Amino acid sequence: MVVKYAISEYHNVEEIYRKIDQLISKPIFPVKKEKMEEYLRYFDNKCHRSKEMTSEAKKYIPGGVQHNLAFNYPFPLVFTKAKGAYLYDLDGNKYIDFLQAGGPTVLGSNPPEIKEKIKELLDTCGPVTGLFHEYEMKIAEFICKRFKGVDKFRMLGSGTEGVMAAIRVARLATGKKKIIKLGGAYHGWSDQMVYGIRIPRTGRFEAHGIPKNCSKHTQEAYPNKISAIESLLRKNRFRGGTAAVIVEPVGPESGTRPVGFDYNQQIRALCDKYGALLIFDEVVTAFRIGIDGAQGYYNVVPDLTVFGKVIAGGYPSAGGLGGKDEYMAYLTAGLGGTKKKAMVGGTLAANPLSSAAGYYTLLEIEKQNASEKAGKAGDRLTKGLQKLIEKYGLPYVAYNQGSICHLETAGTMFVDVNISKPWTIPNALKQIKERKHMMEEMGAAYMAEGLVTLAGSRMYTSMADTNEVIDEALLRFERVFQHIEGV
Ligand SMILES: Cc1ncc(COP(=O)(O)O)c(C=O)c1O
Fold first, then answer.
1. Distance between CA 65 and CA 369 in Å, rounded?
2. Active site includes 91?
3. Which of 22, 30, 38, 69 is the most buried (most CB within 10 A)?
4. For the segment 116-152, what is each residue's pLDDT rounded down to a tens digit?
């Protein structure tokens, strides 16, 4: 089987970082004040039903929204319809959807062929029985037959749970303690992994409510510096050993910090040298970079692979762990397996609805070459944005890993924070606050132009993004770029 990938050519990592360094060394380039006021008026004038409902929601939901990725500034919008490349809000406004629910919908929103299968399933067995269903085998078989690093697969409730399971298995299999992650990488919100997230070298910065001991064995290595990982691996030999190195193969924060093409291979070699397991967190990349994951694209075989997002095609309970037989034996449910088992569970884990939704989504992605098509849309969007950036002489940086597109206008996650130099922190925090607000404004400006993005800095494309959709989106981005300070 010849797999076609979302990434058509590998980005120039050095050039991206050089441009980002320049971006971050300058003051911010936000939307001009008068134009921003006009954008904010859009929400008051055109979205009053959303405003009413989300104001009411504040009485019952902390902050008024349930989801971290929900658009918030100036207030959340209520979405009532999602179809292909488009979203529609409660007031009837139509948007091009580059949030794509945070990544699961490579086929586009609510594909009818999946919906029909789900309806059939609901008519027969409903969403859940708690007992074995054919679809849990079908999805596992599909994945095992395609992923180089997966002999067996266990479906779980979320990517966060998949990471927790992976760490537990790695410790059992190696008898070692330390887990090395890359600075800035997000691996879900479990106690051990809220460490060095978003921005490298921030350690327990966001670990409020998590006892120090929980992250005692979590370490972060500065991304793209292979020597930083080796240095930890070496030292860890005298501190309980390294159970695993966990990476997002395209780089921390879904590739916001891109990594060199050989980086994963080099980490594989280090893991072998020091007897640590290599965990690929493919929550974002599995089926999006290619039907056999980023591991297929980079041709690197991890010991364990974490799944999420696309695995349930946008339906609930999207998570899982796959890996080599010898490791997956620790996750044996029912009879058999190793003497000591890694405790995992979940009332709704591998329920028929999630398994069927995932199975038919993966079949369709493969049949339609959706990863490659979504990647082409991402290329077109990114190239178009790069041209606009040049045309308007902006310091912004656009780059992509196929259908994962980044548009850094504020560079918030690149502010240098180093908790081991506490005297630098107040200034860094001030910068982050200012740049974060600019991102919120950019997100609001895009939204007012009919573009839904992830936090004003990331766009996921899908197979539904035809050339016409992307070209229309670029016209809308241009309308924002025409009104940037200094243009
Ligand atoms: C790379 C990565 N790992 C893990 C997770 C956590 O997955 P979930 O939100 O399903 O718990 C995410 C979520 O965005 C992610 O991007």
1. 35
2. no
3. 30
4. 999 999 999 999 999 999 999 999 999 999 999 999 9
